[in-house]
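dude i think i finally got it to work??
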Amino acid sequence: YTGKNKSIYTGEAVPDLANPVSGTDYTVTGLASGETLNGAISLKYQKDGNDVTPNSTNAGTYQIVPYGASVPNVDNYNDISFVNGTLTISVKQSSGTSSSGYSGNSGSSSGSSGSGSGASSNSGGANKPSGSSTSSDTKGKVDVTKDPSEGKIPAGKKETTTATTDDGSTTETSKVTNTDGSKTEKEKVTSQNGTVSEKTTVTEKDGTVKTQETVEKKNGSKVESASEVKPNGDYKSETVQTNASGKVTKEVSETRTTNKKTGDVTLKTKTKKSDGSSESASVVTDKKGNITKASITEKNAKGKKTKVDLKTDEKEMCLFLKSMPLCQALCFPINL
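look at this
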């Protein structure tokens, strides 16, 4: 049971979690066909293990914490594993620069390769992507095993806190400012059922947010994920799921890129499974958030491909996608 990551700009409304929607606000994996979780599925925002209401006037990150549900049959399932999502609040770029959410300074937004630094496109759809040479840089994959704070030198003493929730889980957090102006935040959550979640978040001086998280169950199975979110909302992320024997059972890649010239944005996502099958999708919107192109491609274990091209209004698009495996990755970035 996983809270989905969300991104907004400073000054924008914080996403409401009062009535969470599957695929938009959370995902559930591991259930048998036709079965659902018991109890109310709920989400809340936390900071340093404490319930909070996010303040969107400042850049930063908040945990999206799932709670309240249980497995449908304790005889058929292990204890439920709750995985936090992240709300990232970024400072909007303008005129080729981005202001840092923490230091208040302005500077060029640096990417992982030389072609992608600097200017943002128009706002409207700037929180979704496109892959041309005029797009902001999301080339290259992020490493799900690499700590983004590696090589960072703390400028002072770490601030550490420990909190225990009513369900017995313990959350340990630490924060520190680094000599290059970036900030590192580490969080470790140990649940009573033996599941351990460790997450590192680095906020660079230009506002780029890098995260790496590992969630490992008592039986040794785990989910490793990493993401890099640019100040304009573009991002790239990777998730790798392995079983107790260490075999990779699922890989998910996702990018969101903005075309600087047109303001068009493109979301691309691809899921690969251990049986060789895969699912991929691409959605392009204009700078106002209107869908202009969309396609979904599925490949079975024997290599046979099925592609569906869609071009319709957003509401019809999402109704269609809710019946598709990739709806959880596509619906939430689209403005309705």
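Confidence is low (pLDDT under 50) at residues 94-136, 322-336.
im so relieved honestly
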